[in-house]
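User: Hello, can you help with two protein structures?

Assistant: Certainly.
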Amino acid sequence: MDITFTPEELQQVEMHKAKYPETKAAIMPVLWMAQKKWGWLSEDVMRYVGELLHLPTAHVKGVASFYTMYFKKPMGNYHIQVCTNISCMLRGGEDIYRHVSNKYGIKHNQSTSDGRISLEEVECMGACGGAPMIAVNEVFYENVDINEVEKVLNSLT
């Protein structure tokens, strides 16, 4: 796999770098760009980001490891996040998580064998007023119940 950004993406990297007084402050948006492009942050991808930002690979790995939004292994084409924090838990979040887990036979941070679906139990998605909530990739669904979640899951193609 070729691990290089296109010229247009490299321009975006430069724009991110220009926003900050220190280059290393651009690490999070550049990691996000890399994850969007390659689906996850492999060792090679993290090394590449380090080279672009003139940072040690260990620093890049440290940032990527600290934040759960960065995937350190391949995830499914549809990454389902289910919030089970207190507001969501009180309104059925744990039941929703169990439902999705049982439907696909996977647990936290696992993927189906065909790589189509991955599941993540998340601590908080910042929408307590819309609890319970799930996200599929970057589409958020609030005030859901198991029936609504099932409709969302069945719509995934």
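That covers the first. Now for the second protein you mentioned:
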Amino acid sequence: MAQVLVFDIREGFKLPYAKCGDVNLYYESHGEGDPLLLIEGLGYATWMWFKQIPELAEHFRVIVFDNRGVGYSDKPDYPYTIQMMANDAAALLKFLGLEESHILGVSMGGMIAQRFARDYPGLVDKLILCCTSHGGPNSIPAPPETIRAMTEIEGLSAEQALCQAMAVAFSKQYLESNREEFDKIIRWRLNNPTPQYSWQHQFNAVLNFNSEDWVNYIDKPTLIVTGSDDRVIPPQNSEMLHQKIDGSELIKLENGGHLFFMEKPGEFNKQVIDFLKG
């Protein structure tokens, strides 16, 4: 199985791709054990798991990949849906010859994970939904200032637009004490930027997602994690998912922003390991 060092993508290096329907998806596989598929959020690529892969790979076979439209995966220019991206994830598991996997999704990835659990229950062992929502008119929207930071980018450079959007994804406490790491993440994103058209296709997929009428049918062991200071997908959305998914567990990380898994990796990784091995 191909195994790639994170952020060690050099010119001429052959990247591992999986043919999934009409797209080629870039993927990485780390460690051994029960498979754990990590599904990233809107506009994000495999770099986002830099604080999860080393620790989780000590316990599981961790599979990360770039959704269509980002990273090193294909970026077709037509409308995307959450169902389409769930189909991509299922095709990747089948490509890898896996009959079942733990599924962990964050933000948009949590929406993909919900749809995955609905459409491919036989491929799911345990489910982890992070900083996400069931969508639809009854979900709690992002605050107006967050929407403005993510969408009002006219006249900004690529770096300025990224800094503006990512600043609301972290807690204010994190930003005050981790500026060097924040700048490093911005550089990673600038090295392989997401085209505006494919970011918009993913964004529209999120806007059109609504699992409220069927998410209660998910019957897999489910852990729901949110940050108390999430300014992108308010934590009330995780509370509503918890009420709808019978037997689910809910964990709220205090002072955690939308990207709490980067802010509090030790605490988050332990919760994941304990839940999946429990």
